[in-house]
Amino acid sequence: MSSLRGNNGPRYRHVPNDATPYETITIDKLTPIIGAEIGGVDLSVPLPNHQMDEIHRALAENSVIFFRDQHLTQDQHLSFGRNFGNLHIHPAAPHAPGHPELMIIRADKDSPRANGEGWHSDVSCDTEPPMGSILYIQQCPPRGGDTLFASMYAAYEALSDRMKAYLTGMTAVHDGEESYRGTYANLGVADKPVYPRAEHPVIRTHPVTGRKALYVNRGFTKRLLGVPRDESAAILAYLYDHAENPLFQCRFRWQENSVAFWDNRCVQHRAMWDYWPHTRSGFRVTVAGDKPV
Question: Which of 4, 89, 155, 216 is the most exposed place for a label (fewest CB within 10 A)?
Answer without folding.
Answer: 4
